[in-house]
């Protein structure tokens, strides 16, 4: 009995010690090691494990969040300037294309497109760039590569890349870029842009066909064949100069030079990872990238966390000194000219659910966060002018809100091949314009997107060359400019258009029947039902009966491919910030039904197509702007789409995270961010105070339980003594 009582007192004492320890420097619920409390470490999360970290294969934003910090293609997007502007990254300057005729004679920049046989891009590489430390570069005393001929015995005890004792590096060369472009052509790379590059890079298709017979060969054999193969459109002129030759003229190629697809890849990495026994250990390029960027992947545990650390071999870069006029007073240029990156390490934890991610952000354990629909009202409110502002709770914590319009568009499309809603007759055109007025996308954004959208006036979102702001940028068929802002035309005007089209109050004057249209939808849950009911009500304003035909996504795509639908919702996210990347969605030769292109509405207008052919090859400037204005005017008049909206990105960051600035095209922005770890740690302590009353209550209960037993033991001891 006495031993039990002593253990009870020890338990009470332990609880008191535990309670007092909570008054230390760190919060009880801190998920990170105490040693990292004030470390220069950025904390964030990811929701989906990256499938590919090989730059030849990767093509998703989840993967680019890591890849763009590691790899350095020739170009990048300027952090602050808008419209989006390309600037050098690993290249010494942005290459200017040079044009030649079939005989190889140089042509002027304004040469007719038909006269241009090929375009040359001369890429000069910056000197002094070195790859991150990696076993693929490690050499033995005799100068041979230490890990390029691994035997099964050499792999004993090797389970991850860090288990290799030695690493090495070397300087970046033009050959590394040439090797990567050949990798894009290799069928076993399964590059998503191989088909597009076949159309543009000279000799790309021939190389792809030549390598096709090696798909069943061993990995080392394929790498050896790739190294020996030549690509006529890619020539290494010297160690730091590469020439890429394109068929004809393709000015949008420069944007591809800012994507990881064109990041340099050393042949040593290909050989290293091709060795037997490594893939079984997940030691592959898809798992362990090899780059020259400011960070390298030091830990890859996609079921738990991903860790980026400073690349000790990084060649260096400076924070930008140029910005937009509104950047002058925002503080975003305070670090102008300073060397980057600022952050030593970035830890990304897997969070599949929104609530834990949001909770940890509010506790200060994540430095930045998106806003889920469930948390939106807690974080954001809409002011009287319709602008989003932070709630008082968020402002009290010093949290900042960043918003930016994404280079995307969601639109409601009309199938222009349909005999009722499509075609170029004035009747169908007036009907489409009436519906465009009636479908209130301002309301849609408010109800279904938490206000996170900007009503589209054309296919071109802000930040893309050709987009016009203010009164000059509104769609006059749907909006009027009043009191300094666009206002949707009245439903009365839409009813007048319906009458002019031969559908007074929604009744076909020729048949006497109510107009009925089919809406193709992908519906899976109750949220979809509410959205579809809303769409049905918009058409009902004009007396149109909208028949919702819900199906799964595969069947929906089949209907769009076959052109059997009438009305549908569709979207597009730009690969690169060029007006061609949006206006081609209305280009006749890209029609979905006839040409299997991305023109899902199958719109075709000869004048639009003619102007588009001229515009897509032009450099940005007044002449190109004039053509874009004409293209937009034609599309607005014909109304093959209800222009819908451009989604807005909302993100939050704590006051200790500096230089957080939205850039929807650049993915390599971690290097610009800076932290104040001391301020973060102080906030964590303030926001996560230990809740001690349960411990004190438990201690009190233990005291009440132990005290009577202790009293009985003491009484028995005294009785025995007497």
UniProtKB/TrEMBL annotation:
It comes from the Bacteria. Pfam families: SBP_bac_5. GO terms for molecular function: peptide transmembrane transporter activity. The chain crosses the membrane at residues 691-713. GO terms for cellular component: ATP-binding cassette (ABC) transporter complex; outer membrane-bounded periplasmic space. InterPro entries: Peptide/Ni-bd, SBP_5, SBP_5_dom. GO terms for biological process: peptide transport. Its main location: other. It is found in: Cell envelope. Keywords: Membrane, Signal, Transmembrane, Transmembrane helix, Transport. Residues 171-591 form the Solute-binding protein family domain. Belongs to the bacterial solute-binding protein 5 family. This is ABC transporter substrate-binding protein. It comes from Allochromatium humboldtianum.
């Amino acid at each position: 009995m006495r031993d039990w009582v002593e253990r009870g007192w020890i338990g009470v004492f332990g609880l008191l010690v535990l309670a007092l320890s909570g008054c230390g420097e760190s919060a009880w619920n801190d998920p990170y090691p105490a040693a990292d409390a004030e470390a220069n470490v950025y904390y964030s999360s990811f929701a989906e494990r990256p499938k590919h970290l090989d730059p030849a294969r990767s093509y998703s934003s989840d993967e680019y969040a890591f890849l763009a910090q590691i790899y350095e293609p020739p170009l990048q997007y300027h952090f602050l300037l808008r419209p989006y502007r390309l600037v050098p990254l690993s290249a010494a300057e942005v290459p200017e294309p040079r044009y030649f005729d079939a005989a190889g004679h140089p042509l002027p920049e304004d040469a007719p497109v038909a006269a241009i046989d090929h375009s040359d891009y001369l890429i000069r590489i910056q000197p002094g760039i070195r790859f991150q430390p990696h076993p693929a570069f490690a050499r033995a005393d005799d100068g041979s590569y230490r890990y390029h001929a691994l035997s099964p015995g050499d792999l004993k005890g090797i389970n991850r890349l860090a288990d290799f004792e030695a690493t090495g590096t070397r300087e970046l060369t033009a050959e590394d870029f040439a090797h990567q472009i050949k990798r894009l052509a290799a069928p076993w790379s399964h590059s998503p842009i191989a088909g597009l590059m076949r159309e543009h890079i000279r000799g790309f298709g021939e190389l792809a066909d030549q390598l096709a017979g090696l798909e069943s060969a061993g990995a080392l054999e394929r790498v050896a064949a790739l190294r020996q193969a030549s690509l006529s459109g890619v020539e290494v002129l010297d160690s730091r100069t590469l020439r890429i030759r394109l068929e004809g003229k393709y000015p949008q190629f420069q944007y591809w030079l800012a994507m990881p697809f064109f990041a340099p890849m050393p042949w040593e990495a290909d050989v290293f990872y091709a060795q037997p026994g490594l893939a079984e250990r997940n030691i592959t390029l898809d798992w362990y990238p090899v780059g020259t960027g400011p960070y390298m992947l030091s830990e890859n545990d996609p079921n738990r966390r991903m860790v980026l650390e400073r690349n000790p071999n990084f060649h260096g870069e400076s924070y930008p000194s140029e910005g937009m006029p509104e950047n002058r007073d925002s503080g975003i240029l305070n670090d102008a000219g300073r060397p980057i990156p600022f952050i030593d390490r970035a830890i990304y934890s897997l969070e599949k659910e929104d609530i834990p991610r949001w909770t940890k952000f509010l506790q200060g354990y994540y430095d930045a966060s998106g806003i889920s629909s469930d948390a939106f009202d807690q974080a954001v409110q809409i002011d009287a002018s319709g602008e989003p502002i932070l709630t008082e709770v968020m402002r009290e914590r010093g949290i900042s809100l960043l918003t930016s319009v994404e280079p995307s568009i969601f639109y409601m499309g009309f199938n222009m091949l349909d005999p009722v809603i499509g075609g170029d007759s004035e009747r169908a055109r007036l009907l489409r314009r009436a519906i465009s007025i009636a479908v209130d996308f301002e309301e849609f954004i408010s109800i279904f997107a938490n206000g996170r959208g900007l009503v589209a006036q054309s296919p071109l979102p802000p930040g893309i060359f050709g987009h016009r702001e203010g009164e000059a940028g509104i769609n006059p068929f749907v909006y009027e400019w009043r009191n300094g802002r666009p206002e949707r035309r009245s439903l009365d005007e839409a009813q007048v258009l319906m009458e002019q089209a031969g559908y007074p109050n929604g009744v076909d004057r020729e048949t006497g029947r109510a107009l009925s249209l089919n809406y193709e939808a992908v519906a899976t849950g109750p949220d979809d039902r509410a959205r579809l009911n809303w769409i049905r009500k918009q058409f009902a304003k004009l007396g149109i009966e909208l028949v919702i035909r819900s199906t799964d996504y595969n069947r929906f795509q089949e209907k769009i491919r076959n052109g059997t639908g009438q009305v549908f919702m569709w979207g597009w996210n730009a690969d690169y910030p060029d007006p061609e990347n949006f206006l081609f969605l209305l280009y006749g030769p890209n029609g979905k039904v006839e040409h299997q292109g991305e023109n899902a509405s199958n719109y075709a207008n000869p004048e639009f197509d003619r102007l588009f052919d001229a515009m897509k090859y032009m450099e940005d400037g007044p002449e190109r702007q004039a053509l874009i204005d004409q293209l937009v005017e034609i599309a607005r008049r014909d109304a093959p789409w209800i222009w819908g909206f451009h989604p807005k990105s909302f993100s939050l960051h704590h006051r200790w995270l500096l230089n957080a600035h939205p850039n929807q095209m650049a993915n390599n922005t971690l290097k610009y961010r800076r932290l104040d770890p001391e301020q973060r740690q102080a906030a964590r302590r303030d926001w996560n105070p230990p809740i001690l009353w349960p411990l004190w209550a438990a201690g009190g209960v233990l005291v009440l339980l132990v005290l009577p037993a202790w009293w009985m033991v003491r009484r028995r001891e005294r009785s025995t003594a007497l």
